[in-house]
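Quick log. Single chain, no ligands specified.
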Amino acid sequence: MGPFPLEEVRQRLSAGTLLPTDLAWAEGKAGWAPLSSLPEVASGVPSALPPVLPFAAAPFQAPPQTSGAAITSLIFGILSITFLLPIIGPIVAVICGHTARGSIRNSAGRLGGEGMALAGLIMGYASLAFMVLLLPILAGIAIPVFAQVQLRGKETKSLSQGKQIVLACKLYALDHGGAYPKDLEELVPNYVTNRAVFVCPLSPTLPIGYDYYGGKDQDPPDTVVLMSKFADRHGKRILVFSDGSAALKAPPNALPAGQ
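-> predicted structure:
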């Protein structure tokens, strides 16, 4: 390259486009020599290389820690969607999911698990929505069943109380020549100590919930002694017979006059 004026050589040395070790020739010189050996340009040769700045490493940042609330939300969301915890599961999943997402947003990158929290929220809300739709159906099934169970319980208790009354009548007959009392009040207090036995669970508002027909200890076994005043939708009543047995059935067409 060149030829260059002396001043331009100095400028190139300062700019770094020429190096002190580059070979050059000048008038009066026998051959090529490094620029730094030429007195004419010595004042333009850099005395030292520019300092090398140290490498500034980026500060170490630990990986984000997974939020415990996000893990809890995911676990309970799975348990709720699989009906292992159909009631508690969705509530815990939703609460922990919202808690986790709030903590993650405010942690400045120190907490992770946003995806877990979101998945737990979705499953929790889906389970809650399903339960809201399912509850009326379950209630529609459970309420009649519960009412039927209650009715069966009252019928069983009414049968038991009717048997107690007829048994008291039989004990009365042993002391009165085989005749049953004219009315149930005669059984109190020697044969029936608690008048509550006269209250039929099927019609609890009546002080005496049974029709009493009287009779004798020697009457045929199928003679109706006692009958509940309550009748179900099929017309069946609690019937207690002279032999002490009881049943829920339709009363016979002919009955003695009730006492």
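The beta strands are 23-24, 33-34, 65-66, 111-112, 210-212, 224-228, 237-241, 246-249.
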